[in-house]
């Protein structure tokens, strides 16, 4: 069955494209993919106006559901029981975009920065998550302290030691790069609607997975996924932690990835 999705549902794609929509399926065909560039969870950027995205979606939308499910299996993301047709089509869309290198081209690091704070926002997800937290709480004073401390740590420490010591300590912790000495990583904070399949597919981008356990919340729309993963080599585990530990997932959650024995 092909699907039709109204513009109001498509408006949710920037928040849910990596987690797959959980609402009821609509009869007919999915349409209206024209969307402004949006960043999904896991920092995967999709420009829904891009010709290659439209072309791929039209290709997937024209397929019968049994062919969509077959391609999902071929791409390593088999459909879960109970997934709606739109979930399956969108999952296949993002999976194929990822494998084509589309996401990687969108998230290349900048070559130069106007300040150390700008560098930290791009290269230290924990710093960005901390700054975004204060901004979302309308605590602009603490957000400004974060920026100033990253840019001028010595002067800012003297200036804000009294009154903002907790903020300064939080910045120090966010700037520390965890050193991973084990291929076993425990994680929490993946959006609940991603489910085990998309958590597995996302982690597998860093390297071969030896084992994975995922705890999915009873209410995926409001909870988060947690669990444990063991990679085949240390470099993959380190890359996953470097990329995602502290990353802001939106909706008030941040990813936590840390080593365990």
Automatic annotation (TrEMBL):
It comes from the Eukaryota. It holds the Pfam family RRM_1. Residues 1-19 form the signal peptide. GO terms for molecular function: RNA binding. SUPFAM superfamilies: RNA-binding domain, RBD. Residues 183-261 form the RRM domain. Keywords: RNA-binding, Signal. InterPro entries: Nucleotide-bd_a/b_plait_sf, RBD_domain_sf, RRM_dom. This is RRM domain-containing protein. It comes from Rhizochromulina marina.
